[in-house]
Amino acid sequence: MTGVRITEVGPRDGLQHEKALVSTDAKVAFIDMLSESGVEEVEVSSFVPAKWIPQLADASEVFARIRRAPEVVYSALVPNERGLDAALTAQVDKVSVFVSATEGFSQRNTAGTIAEVLLRIQPVVRRAREAHRKVRGYVSCVVRCPYDGPVDPDSVASVAARLLEMGVDEIDLGDTIGAADAAAIESLYKGLEGVVSAGATTLHLHDTTGRATECAIRAAEIGVRSFDASAGGLGGCPFAPGSAGNVATETLIDALIERGFSVRASADRLRAAGQWMRRSIASCASSEG
Ligand code: HMG
Ligand code: MG
Questions:
Q1: How is residue 56 annotated by DSSP?
Q2: Does the global pTM surpass 0.85?
Q3: Cα 90 to averaged position of ligand 1 atoms, centre (Å)
Q4: Domains of the chain by range and CATH?
Q5: What is the pLDDT of residue 285?
């Protein structure tokens, strides 16, 4: 059976979007549950300024307190060299840099043009590799941008090519606002031909219109073998109006297994972890309000 790899992004993409500030204790408990679910990777947090994402200001403490399973990779978002210093001190296994395929989102999400952001992350990729860390290169807004509208797959391919030249190990394609349908996924991968094979990418879907699972299945048929997803469908980007949660990990796993793919992680454990975190968020919100 063909295996598919899952990165659980709930602790980062999920919690960055919640108004409630979830306690460090709850994050650590959530990540420990995710580690026990069998996922291959957990995106734990982001080393970004607290004024940009206050929800993830405790990234170092979370890394210090989680129980690390030897077969799980623990990664984090890193926007610049200062973030990298903190991430290396926290002993992250893998560093994720992120660039938009569009200028509008690049300015709003990372305070710079695409060219400026590529320059900013170049030393991050170099130093992460020197420190023997794997590097993931996200390209955001691969289908539609909340500021610039529809996105030409060629723009995605050109940013992906720059990231690969820099030396990232993996390209992660983000449908940031969940605009894709199966046809858009086909066009996206057609545009990437000659730059990166489908099997060397990860697909990061948000489920704004309920089509994320169908997009993932189309992508798996095309050859994608790695997906990001979030237990309970938590998630979204605060700088992308209209973005909704990531595709729910448990739903994605059920759909992949139904189509004959094999997945290491347990959908039931992920469903339970997502429900547990939703209850924690609800109890934060009621105690704040
Ligand atoms: P900036 O404000 O231009 O940064 O932001 P700066 O270099 O001017 O620094 C501003 C302040 O932050 C300074 O402090 C710095 O020292 C400090 P001050 O002098 O004002 O006291 N600072 C830091 N502090 C802690 N950690 C750091 C750091 N760097 C600077 N690493 C910057 C530029 C790139 C930092 C900012 O725009 C940023 O971090 N943006 C990221 C925002 C973010 O996390 N967005 C969500 C994630 S992306 C996403 O969700 C999409 C994805 O899911 C895929 C998809 O769906 O498409 C990945
Ligand atoms: Mg996202």
A1: G
A2: yes
A3: 18
A4: 3-288 (3.20.20.70)
A5: 67
